[in-house]
Amino acid sequence: MRKLKVTEMGRLSLAEYKASDKQPIVVVLDHVRSLYNVGSVFRSSDAFRIEGVCLCGITAQPPHPEIHKTALGAEESVSWKYFEHTEDAVSWLKQQGYKVLAVEQCEGSTMLQDFVRQPEEKYAVVLGNEVKGVQQQVVDMCDGCLEIPQYGTKHSLNVSVTAGIVLWHLSKK
Question: What distances in angstroms separate CA 119 from CA 56, 126, 172, 173, one per listed residue?
Answer without folding.
Answer: 27, 19, 11, 9
